[in-house]
Amino acid sequence: xxxxxxxxxxxxxxxxxxxxxxxxxxxxxxxxxxxxxxxxxxxxxxxxxxxxxxxxxxxxxxxxxxxxxxxxxxxxxxxxxxxxxxxxxxxxxxxxxxxxxxxxxxxxxxxxxxxxxxxxxxxxxxxxxxxxxxxxxxxxxxxxxxxxxxxxxxxxxxxxxxxxxxxxxxxxxxxxxxxxxxxxxxxxxxxxxxxxxxxxxxxxxxxxxxxxxxxxxxxxxxxxxxxxxxxxxxxxxxxxxxxxxxxxxxxxxxxxxxxxxxxxxxxxxxxxxxxxxxxxxxxxxxxxxxxxxxxxxxxxxxxxxxxxxxxxxxxxxxxxxxxxxxxxxxxxxxxxxxxxxxxxxxxxxxxxxxxxxxxxxxxxxxxxxxxxxxxxxxxxxxxxxxxxxxxxxxxxxxxxxxxxxxxxxxxxxxxxxxxxxxxxxxxxxxxxxxxxxxxxxxxxxxxxxxxxxxxxxxxxxxxxxx
Amino acid sequence: xxxxxxxxxxxxxxxxxxxxxxxxxxxxxxxxxxxxxxxxxxxxxxxxxxxxxxxxxxxxxxxxxxxxxxxxxxxxxxxxxxxxxxxxxxxxxxxxxxxxxxxxxxxxxxxxxxxxxxxxxxxxxxxxxxxxxxxxxxxxxxxxxxxxxxxxxxxxxxxxxxxxxxxxxxxxxxxxxxxxxxxxxxxxxxxxxxxxxxxxxxxxxxxxxxxxxxxxxxxxxxxxxxxxxxxxxxxxxxxxxxxxxxxxxxxxxxxxxxxxxxxxxxxxxxxxxxxxxxxxxxxxxxxxxxxxxxxxxxxxxxxxxxxxxxxxxxxxxxxxxxxxxxxxxxxxxxxxxxxxxxxxxxxxxxxxxxxxxxxxxxxxxxxxxxxxx
Lengths: 466, 373
Description:
The structure holds two protein chains of two kinds. Chain A is mostly helical. Chain A folds into four domains: 37 residues, no CATH class; 244 residues, Cytochrome Bc1 Complex, Chain C, CATH 1.20.810; 79 residues, no CATH class; 58 residues. Chain A contains 17 helices and two strands. Chain A has a two-stranded parallel ribbon with strand order 1-2. In chain A, 35% of the residues are buried. By secondary structure, chain B is an alpha+beta fold. Chain B has two domains: 155 residues, no CATH class; 150 residues, Rieske [2Fe-2S] iron-sulphur domain (Rieske Iron-sulfur Protein, 3-layer Sandwich), CATH 2.102.10.10. In chain B, a hairpin with a 5-residue loop joins strand 12 and strand 13. Classes of the chains: A mainly alpha, B alpha+beta. Chains A and B meet through helix 6, helix 7, helix 8 and helix 14 of A and helix 1, helix 2, helix 5 and helix 6 of B.
């Protein structure tokens, strides 16, 4: 060792022995070489204290993307993309293969979390005006990214091939088919001819083409400054597992040609589209034109909102527009879920009166727009023009003494150990739901412990007291 | 709060606002950049002969072009001095010209006549491989500077001059070497890219057409031939047509069909339906794919209608009160609002043997489109 050591003179002499030294050496060796790659071009911030997770919701979305990649790769090992074999293979994963149900639930809830977080991420950046500081390209690629994310989730729940998936594939493909002039050619080029093709193409889109597109978009969309906060990531992952434990995703009814299909709803991020389709408007208008216009509206925002003000409080018009769009999404999403199953015929059960829904949309838009606008104008008048506040003085919460913090941490650790044991036991006795719930709770507990730890750091032993 | 804590707080805040400050510094440096456009070298050497980039709209005289042998001035220019307003003397700009220069101004031709006499033109009809005529005065082309698309032959026609009598064809279409190469590269690239058009047919695949075979239809649960006696009056069964025996193909929704034993109050034309020789009742078969958004509909005996669970389209299996529409027509829901060829289900024509065995013989219409598609 001493023969090779003289090359690096930096560590002190007593540090030049042992495993720690070797690890350190390896670490520096790696970092110096990774410095030549793109990886270290990103500037990672690991906040030492709690900062609001809102500015780095994008990072959380990406973490979900990684979770989806890993769990999806695991599902890939057993999935069969064929018309007669797909549902059976998902059933095998769900019911027979050990831990298959956990992997499947993680994949399902992470996909939902990804769509939801992407939406929140977009709205945060919309209201905080982050798209302004020459982030237009990041914003536009973000909108494309969000659309691709929804398509990815859509193709995902289609290749399970239960009855709902078959209807969803039919609707997706026939919506494409309804496009004027190019429709049939597009369908044949993108989806092929007939269901055996559709399933394989949806599969190819879901596991390769769209993810590759997303990775390419990531390269453009990622800013150079990223924040990675372990407890928040841990909490999000824990929430996914806990949800999987409480509401495990169902398999649905296997699609067979003889199956008598009942009322079927799409996933929550598509029910707003479903509401429009149920107004009996021409299918191209309801299914493609309206959502495209909605997406385009967000895409052009940075080129319309060109003021030098960032805070939502200083931009009453665009804040009002954003609130109104949230109102629209909530209204149409809820309306898409609502089916009057007591109605005598499916037509009356499913019909959404266009006068009602568009009237309600206009009303909600007007109310939220005018309400927000008036509120912000008044508030601005009161505060003399500019409302955005400066920095708030922040301090750590030190309501517990050191002794108590240690006690709570130890108790939490004990609870973690207990939950882990419980999870192992329930896995052994094949209660996958309980296993999932416990594992999620462990992750949430870890998040809480980390959080408590970083708040109590200044008054922990060895640190100068407050 | 201790000093230590405060420092840490500050650090956190700093890291949060790092992005903004970094960007503002970038912006500051960007603001300066328009002030020094001339810092960019405006000429670049080519083997043997230094070639400078052209300046729009300014003809350069012959004598000045010798300056091009030295690098272009790289001293910062005032921001107001754009390339258009620059005096020609400060920026000698030349480049090799094949044959004749593309002229846009009268002065250009006047100044070019003298050197053109000494520089013989390129061989006619040959691709421009001729040597650059150094010292040729450059006349601005609209695409000069490399920003625009190459327009090799768009220069205004230059009248024939006595100095270039040996060029009968090329005299009107003269191209600078750079633009020619650029054009060739782009056309070549497009031709190369066009090969990927072959992917279109690849992606579309082929239909493994089963045609429209005459097949005895089978009960999907028992796989036995379906007989008229198996279907009660005003009841229905699903069947696969055309049937291949491969579940991966047969499970396609487009192969799913429905046969309905019509109730007494509904009728259907003889060419679309079949009469049961045993009971004398009418049987009629449709594609099960809704013509709205391709979901699978089911027959509801109580309503005497086919009903789609996705968006609520409803179809009548035969003609009769209260709708009095031809069989397969959508009477309620979104499919009924579609324009005529798209509002009727495709019909599978049937023939029934003396023992009641039902055969599918063909299809009227196109699945997912309509009866008259």
